[in-house]
Structure formats: C-alpha cells, structure tokens
Amino acid sequence: MSKNHGPSIKNDDQYEALRREGMSKEKAARIANDPNSGKKGGKAENYEDRSKQDLYDKAKEVGISGRSKMSKDELIQALRNA
C-alpha cells in the first residue's frame, strides 16, 4: 500500500512509481493528478498537427511558464520536455 500524499496528489501509487523512476516531485505530481494519465491508446494527435492555440492550451494545462511568448515550435518542444 502506498503512502497517502494528501489531497494534492490524486493517484498516490502512480506518484510513487514515477518518483522511483527518478522524476522530480513536480513532474510526478503533474502526471499523477492528470485524469487522463495512464490511459493507453495512442490516439492523440501529433503536436505538429495541432494549432498553436491547442498547444498553448495544453501548455497552460500542464503549467508551462512563458508559454504566451513561445512560437508553435517552442510550445512543441516545451510540451515534449514537460
């Protein structure tokens, strides 16, 4: 049984697994709190096929700072490294 990390972490098991893999606390929390994380299917559009606004919205959702000044290519890079 995993440790309860309080209400700020929605999926404690996933959070702990990600931390064991070496992810930062912030990144592990962001993934563990995403209701879509862990779902498989590979049906997401390629970033290159999305509009800049869609990429901006996704960057906002995952908490990427400086996104308002980023180009489409910069948003794609930031999302891939988030």
UniProtKB/TrEMBL annotation:
InterPro entries: DUF7218 (IPR055642), Rho-like_N (IPR011112). Residues 1-82 are annotated as: Disordered. It holds the Pfam family Rho_N. Residues 10-29, 42-61 have a biased composition (Basic and acidic residues). Residues 53-80 form the Rho termination factor-like N-terminal domain. This is Rho termination factor N-terminal domain-containing protein. It comes from Algoriphagus halophytocola. The lineage of its organism: Bacteria, Pseudomonadati, Bacteroidota, Cytophagia, Cytophagales.
